[in-house]
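Mods, move this if it's the wrong board.
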Amino acid sequence: MELKRKELAGPRFWLASLGALSIGVVFVTSARAVVVEIFHADSLAGPMRELKKAVEGKNMDVTINLAAGVSKQLAERILNGDACDVFAPSSPAVVDEDLMIRTVAGSDRDAASWYVVFAGNEIVIVTARGTPLGIRHASDLAKPCRTQIEPRKTDQVMRTKEQVL
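Not the wrong board. C-alpha cells:
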C-alpha cells in the first residue's frame, strides 16, 4: 500500500507509525491540530497512557483520545461506525476474526485491510520456594491438588483445593 503525500499528516499515518512512536521516533506534523482516536484493549492501558504522554509532549498540535475496553466489543464499535484511527486489540485474532474483509455498517469502507503486531505478552508463573502444592514447573499446574491450602491473614478470600486448580 503506497501512502499519498496528503495522507502523511492524517490518521492513517498515525496507524502506520504507532510502532515507531513507541520507540521514541518523533514525527513532524502539519501546523493544523491533529486528533487521533485510539481504541485499545484494557490490558494496554499503561503503555497507551505513556504513548499519549510522549506523543502529546513532543507534538503540541496533536491530541490523542484513548478509549479502553474489551477488544471484541471495541471491534464491534468499529463495525458499527464509531470513529477510530488506531485499534490496538489484545490479540491479532480479534482483527483477523472480527474486522478483516468486513465493512463498516452503512458504508463501503473496510473495517480493516491490514495490521501490524507491535507487542506481545507472555504468561509468567511465580511461586514461593517450598510451596505446599509442590509447583515447580508449568506442567505441575495440570496435576490434581493434593494439599489443602490454609489462608493467610492477608488473603481476602478462602480458597478450597478445587478453586486453586
